[in-house]
Amino acid sequence: MTNFSASRLLAPVRHGAVVLALAALAGCGLAGVGGSGGDATPSAQVNGGATTAPVESTPVPSESTPVESTPAQTESTPVQPESTPVESGTADKAAAPVAPGGTLVDGSTVSSELTRAGQKDKFTLDLGDAREFWVTDMEGADIQFQVFSEVDGEPLGPAPASLSYGTSLFKLTKVGGHRLEVWGGTNVVGPYSFRIATVKVRTFPAAIGLKIGEGSPAGAGRLDPPGRIDRFEFDADGATAIKIIGGQCGDIAMELFDAAQKSVAEARQPYPLCGNEFEIPLASGTGRYALVVRSPAAKAGTYSFQIVRAG
C-alpha cells in the first residue's frame, strides 16, 4: 500500500475549512447538510431464498448396440434439462419437449430433428413402476425408433417401430433401466415428434342394465390422465349377448375381455364407442366379463354408455 504524508492529507482539509468560513461570513451558509438530501436510495434486494428448479444431469448410459446395415450412427447432443413428471389430470398441459439426451417420463413430449445422415438420438426412460407404455402422436417420415434394455443392450421386440403415424405399445419385460433410440433410414434427415403415456388400469363393478357416465359410478366416465384404461366387470347373469349404447364422446373404443384377463392395454377387436350401438356375444350365459374402455391414441376424454341384455 502507498503511504501518503500527513501534510498532503491536511492540505485539502485546511482549504475546505477556509472556504466554509468565507461562505458563512458572506451570509451563504450551507444548508441541508445531513438532511433529506443525504438519504441514499435503497438498493434492490436480492432474494437469496429464490431458487430455480434443479436440473438433473443424467449421464447417458453406455450400451451395446447391435450391428446395423445402415451407416455408422453418430451420438446425439449432450444431456439437456429433462421434463417435469406430469401429475394426474395435467398431461395434456404439456411441459417443454424433451431434447435428445434427456429423460422421458409419463406425459413427456419430444419434438426434434435429425439433421445429419447416420444421426441417432437417445432418450433415457424413467417411467416409475409402469411396465407398459404407449408412444403416440407420432410423426417422422422414414424415421424409426426402438426401446433397448440397459442391462444387456438388447432391443425389446424383434424390429423397430415406425414414427410415421399412429400409436405403439411397449412392454418392459426386463429389470433395470431402458432407453429409447430414434434414427432415420439411409441418408434420411428431418423432423420427428412423439408423446409418452404409461398404461394406467382401474376396475369398476358393473351389471347388465347399468348406465355409466362421468361420476357414475364414482370416478368413472372420464379417461384422465392420458393412458387411463377403465375396466367394468360384470356377471353374464344368463345373457348370451349384450348390447352397448354409446353416448357422445371423442375417439374412445370399447372391447370385451374375460374378467380373468388383466393385461388389457393391447387392442384386439375394439368397437368405436362414441355415438354407436352394437352387440357383443358372450361365450355362455355364465361367467364374468370385463368391458374395457380406452383411447386408441392414449388421450384424455369423457365417455358414457349403457349395458343392455341382448340375448
TrEMBL record:
<feature type="region of interest" description="Disordered">
    <location>
        <begin position="42"/>
        <end position="108"/>
    </location>
</feature>
<feature type="compositionally biased region" description="Polar residues">
    <location>
        <begin position="59"/>
        <end position="87"/>
    </location>
</feature>
<keyword id="KW-0732">Signal</keyword>
<protein>
    <submittedName>
        <fullName>Uncharacterized protein</fullName>
    </submittedName>
</protein>
<feature type="signal peptide">
    <location>
        <begin position="1"/>
        <end position="31"/>
    </location>
</feature>
